[in-house]
Design goal:
This protein is α/β, with parallel strands linked by helices. The chain is 33% helix and 16% strand. The protein contains 13 helices and 16 strands. Helix 5 packs antiparallel against helix 6 and helix 9 packs parallel to helix 10. The radius of gyration is 24 Å and the shape is elongated.
Length: 452
């Protein structure tokens, strides 16, 4: 009896091929789901089907597996979380006449986590209609800070090596992905009169320098074609300088409001100041991407229109890129409909999927992977690039509230070390406006340069 739909198996096969080798295929037969290599002897059988992995719920049981007790290495040196069951058989992985049998639904876990089955049609949302970390199974059972899909695939890697010791598997290297949502390009250049007065007043109260507080107003009146170094939101060159010193590429995601929805960005993508900035980013070899408007996560046509506006602005300036990606504003996401907006817009990747209220591994992985709609069983061309940490989630008062402290630094580097342990991608979001003083700049630089 077949329990898996063809589209699901095909998608999981793509995941395995990307992670290990293109020689693998997945089939389902009377034994269960089998991993095999055409023309090669032997197979790996995934046993222990868990139907709850195909349901949108967060009340699954959980247990832990001590892999070292059976001679298998854990990526983090810790027992592996095993959602979906209260107990596991011993041995969990057994050798049996030319095959290995894994008596836990590793593929079901990968499907449940990567396809975000848990989030379908949820109503326990926050004030921005987001599924919060605190509603998730990972948070409730204290494994949000762990890439559990990668941890289980680390075990599968070892099983593959024992089953087919001569097969050459793909090698992955740890990497850092830096991105910057450009909600505000300038603190003063595009502010409406009332906003400008408030910002000038706030700056005066913070600095106690009346002349210094009026400098931005003078700059606004004097120059409408280029950002000035005195503008506290203008940290773009500093960001690129730090990235280049460390051989990183920074991605800057720009707002292109094209709807009547609530608009948070106060600039227009075609403005000379913005165009000059994008030219400079492109000239220095960094990436430009899309930051869709607040509230359009359920409107694929609106996402498509904003992506089109960004591309048109770039085409006029001769800005060409091999890939186009970005992130939803406020990390707003409605699963799976938001995927269709990015797919219809022809975007290469989305990097929204992290929780706003807590950093960590929302998708259970720090590897990029092809998107999948678990409602309509559809594989997308779009790729998901999970976001591991946003500075506001860790430091912001609305969320963890750690501020610019050693505790915040340790939280960031803990996540970075975890990504490195599985040779994944540590993706960090840091807004250009959150580098407006030396302490924040030092924190950012220390994080990305840690353990290089």
């Amino acid at each position: 009896m077949h329990r898996h739909k063809n589209a699901v198996l095909k998608w999981l096969e793509v995941i395995i091929r990307e992670r290990f080798s293109n020689v693998f295929s997945l089939i389902e037969n009377e034994d269960g789901v089998c991993l095999r290599i055409d023309g090669a002897v032997g197979r790996i059988v995934f046993n222990g089907f868990i139907p709850e992995f195909y349901q949108a719920r967060s009340d699954l049981p959980i247990t832990y597996w001590k892999s070292d007790n059976e001679g298998w290495r854990s990526a983090l040196g810790l027992p592996l979380p095993a959602p979906g069951t209260c107990s596991l058989p011993t041995p969990l992985i057994e050798r049996n006449i030319g095959k290995y049998i894994i008596n836990y639904d590793v593929l079901g876990l990968a499907y449940w986590m990567l396809a975000r089955v848990e989030e379908i049609e949820r109503t326990d949302l926050d004030e921005h209609s987001r599924f919060p970390a605190k509603s998730s199974h990972a948070y409730k059972h204290n494994y949000l800070a762990r890439p559990i899909v990668d941890e289980w695939l680390y075990i599968l890697h070892q099983v593959i090596q024992r089953q087919w010791p001569r097969i050459e598997l793909k090698r992955h290297s740890f990497a850092v992905g830096l991105s910057h949502d450009v909600d505000m390009i300038s603190r003063y250049a595009f502010a409406k009169p009332l906003q400008l007065v408030r910002r000038l007043g706030g700056d005066f109260l913070r600095r106690g320098n009346f002349r210094g507080s009026l400098l931005p107003l003078w700059l606004r009146l004097k120059n409408d074609k280029k950002l000035h170094a005195a503008d506290t939101a203008n940290t773009f060159d500093w960001i690129m300088d730090v990235s280049e010193r460390n051989n990183f590429i920074s991605s800057f995601y720009f707002a292109c409001p094209n709807t009547r929805k609530i608009i948070y960005a106060d600039y227009e993508i075609e403005h000379p100041i913005v165009i000059e900035l994008m030219r400079r980013i492109h000239r220095r070899g960094h990436e430009i991407g899309l930051h869709p408007s607040y509230g359009i996560q359920s409107d694929p046509q609106a996402i498509t229109a904003e992506a089109s506006r960004l591309r048109k602005a770039c085409v006029r300036e001769g800005i060409e890129q091999e890939q186009w990606g970005g992130r939803m504003h406020y990390l707003c996401w409605r699963h799976p409909i938001t995927l269709y907006g990015w797919e219809q817009a022809g975007m290469s990747y989305d990097s929204t999927l992290s929780y706003a209220d807590m950093p960590g591994f929302r998708c259970g992985t720090c590897f990029e992977y092809p998107a999948f709609d678990p409602v309509n069983d559809k594989i997308f061309n779009l790729r998901i690039r999970p976001l591991i940490a946003m500075e506001c989630s860790v430091m912001g008062k609305r969320y963890m509230g750690l501020g610019v402290t050693e505790a915040a630094f340790q939280k960031f580097v803990e996540l970075k070390r975890t990504c490195k342990a599985v040779n994944g991608l540590f993706t960090l979001l840091w807004h250009n406006t959150e580098l407006d003083n030396i302490e924040k700049k030092r924190m950012y630089q220390n994080i990305i340069e840690y353990d290089r």
